[in-house]
From TrEMBL, chain B:
A GO molecular function held by the record: transmembrane transporter activity
Source domain of life: Bacteria
BP GO terms, sorted: amino acid transport
Localization per record: Cell membrane
Main subcellular localisation: membrane
Alphabetical keyword list: Amino-acid transport, Cell membrane, Membrane, Transmembrane, Transmembrane helix, Transport
GO cellular component: plasma membrane
Transmembrane domains' residue ranges: 6-27, 34-56, 68-90, 102-122, 134-161, 194-217, 229-256, 268-289
Pfam families per UniProt: BPD_transp_2 (PF02653)
InterPro entries: ABC_transp_permease, BCAA_transport_permease
Bilayer topology term: Multi-pass membrane protein
Protein family: Belongs to the binding-protein-dependent transport system permease family. LivHM subfamily.
The name this protein goes by in its record: ABC transporter permease
Length: 263, 296
């Protein structure tokens, strides 16, 4: 079932009507978040979202609708002007990004984010920064990542900046997985990648889903994202627009994409 | 006869150039670190160098300490000064804009210079120790002992810093922060704390740089601008973020200075070095802070 944000009674205080009121505290959620870089130009206006535990939640919307900003706010890179961020019911609104990893969260940012002048191995070591003083745990975590992504082991001595875009994406995913996060925020995973690589990236996200990790995916690649989704939100002009289970969206995809092309 | 003299002069100039170049590398490293990693143009850098020289003077006059020992003492003293500067000033203005930071650090320069004049007057000082005028002569080539010691101290510090940045997890985190600050933060790195460490290290190299400069040059509270220009030149030529490139640039400046002083009258040396700064800035079109990048 799909609902329009206008159907939600205003000021009800509940995160958002996802039909799981009993479970409203679990997972990662934002409640009534207003945020922006300038006070006269708010990117998010009273937005509420909930990424349920072990599910893939997809956030869709046309360019400039505030999707990436929502991820930045959720990860603490941008502080909201009002509203709350909750992880399993605990408020984490003001926890800085460098402390989110320790809470079991991780963010895969949009575009290239490897450390280009460090080797692949060094990039992964940075991913294990929190284990840093415990050499044995760091080594074990790196081995786990190498076992999971054998290609990374082959490239371990290469400078990350010398790899292709798709290879760098794998390094970024590997670096994120060193900390073995429970809640993963992913921003536009396929931007700038060759189609073959894009498929591999979505296969990897599917694997993360199978592993029961909580995933919040922001994507312009609507079809691929919806195929993975359990629950979908759409944003328009920085406000909640539609939301619902995947089934409710699949028939409406064409119409939705067309409506966004008007923007 | 004439050719042998000029040849040995040239060899002597080359050796002196390399020794000076190591010292120039040391006094430039801090500037390169703060600019390359934190994006802070620390124009007060040279006043910290000058304070290092006066630390050596005070320790020598009051306690009779050899400048070699003062160089060791300067490391923790100036590390602490750097940490305080970062915490009290830089961290508050760095987030606003680079121009604001520049103005604040210019203020720091004025304050330190003024305080130094009040404390030590504008008289020129020299560090006089037993080996100040000693020199080693090898195959007709004389090398001043203080230069040799200064260069050795510089080399040790440059090597230590390079090893730290390359081989330790903290060093890698600092390099990661320089390459992509936001990606470092989402990997769990507390970039504010690392900035403290970076500024502390940068200031420590300035302090030790001041000590070793005082071993080979006279100094006063106002002649530090020369070292600021030299350090900027090394940073512009060597680029940001690589200690090895900074070393190459430092050696190059040292060589150009000594070799041109053999070939041309003394007053042309500054002209040549500053001309080099202009050319380097023109060639590196993106200017000083060209290597900043953001992923998020």
């Amino acid at each position: 079932m799909m609902r329009h944000a206008a159907d939600v009674p205003a000021g009800s205080g509940a995160p958002s009507p996802n039909g799981l009121a009993s479970n409203a505290n679990a997972g990662l959620s934002m409640r009534g978040v207003t945020a922006g870089y300038y006070s006269h130009d708010l990117v998010l206006n009273n937005v509420s979202l909930n990424a349920r535990p072990g599910k893939v939640t997809v956030l869709l919307g046309p360019n400039g609708s505030g999707k990436s900003t929502a991820l930045r706010v959720l990860y603490g890179l941008l502080r909201p002007r009002s509203g709350q961020i909750l992880l399993d019911g605990r408020e984490i609104t003001t926890v800085p990004p460098q402390r989110r990893l320790a809470l079991g969260m991780a963010l895969l940012p949009q575009g290239r984010s490897v450390f280009p002048e460090l080797t692949v191995q060094e990039n992964l070591e940075i991913g294990g920064w929190l284990l840093g003083r415990d050499r044995r745990r760091l080594a074990a975590a790196l081995e786990a990542v190498y076992a999971r992504y054998p290609l990374l082991k082959e490239w371990r001595q290469k400078q990350a900046g010398s790899l292709s875009g798709g290879q760098q994406r794998l390094v970024e995913i590997g670096r994120m997985m060193v900390a073995d996060p429970r809640v993963i925020l992913i921003d536009e995973p396929s931007v700038g990648l060759a189609p073959v690589i894009v498929d591999q990236v979505y296969e990897e996200i599917a694997r993360l889903k199978e592993e029961q990790r909580t995933i919040l995916l922001v994507d312009q690649n609507v079809r691929a994202a919806v195929a993975l989704a359990d629950y979908i939100y759409t944003l328009e002009y920085g406000r909640n627009n539609l939301e619902g289970e995947r089934g409710a969206f699949e028939d409406r995809l064409e119409a939705l994409i067309k409506s966004w092309l008007r923007f | 006869m004439l050719t042998t003299i000029s040849l040995s002069l040239l060899v002597q100039a080359l050796i002196n150039g390399l020794l000076l170049g190591l010292v120039y590398t040391l006094i430039s490293l801090g500037l390169s670190l703060t600019l390359g990693i934190m994006g802070v143009v620390n124009v007060a850098h040279s006043t910290l160098i000058m304070l290092g020289s006066y630390l050596a003077l005070e320790l020598l006059q009051r306690l009779g300490l050899d400048p070699i020992i003062s160089a060791v003492i300067a490391v923790p003293v100036f590390f602490l000064i750097g940490v305080l500067l970062e915490r009290l000033l830089i961290s508050r203005v760095a987030r606003t804009s680079q121009t604001t930071g520049l103005l604040v650090l210019f203020g720091v320069l004025v304050v330190i210079e003024g305080a130094a004049i009040l404390r030590w007057t504008t008289d020129t000082q020299v560090l006089s120790v037993s080996y100040t005028n000693a020199s080693l002569t090898l195959a007709g080539i004389a090398i001043a002992v203080p230069r040799l010691i200064a260069a050795a101290i510089a080399l040790v510090l440059v090597w230590l810093l390079d090893t730290f940045l390359r081989s330790t997890l903290y060093g890698k985190a600092i390099r990661a922060m320089a390459q992509n600050r936001d990606a470092a933060r989402i990997s769990g790195i507390d970039t504010d704390r690392l900035s403290l460490l970076v500024f502390g290290l940068a200031t420590a190299t300035a302090g030790v740089g001041g000590v070793v400069l005082a071993m080979i040059f006279p100094f006063d509270p106002q002649d530090h601008y020369r070292w600021l220009a030299w350090a900027f030149l090394v940073v512009v030529i060597g680029g940001l973020g690589s200690i090895r490139n900074t070393l190459l640039a430092g050696l190059l400046i040292g060589l150009i200075e000594t070799v041109s002083s053999v070939l041309f009258p003394f007053q042309y040396v500054y002209f040549i070095v500053y001309l080099l700064l202009v050319v380097a800035l023109l060639v590196r079109g993106q200017g000083l802070a060209g290597s900043q990048s953001r992923a998020l």
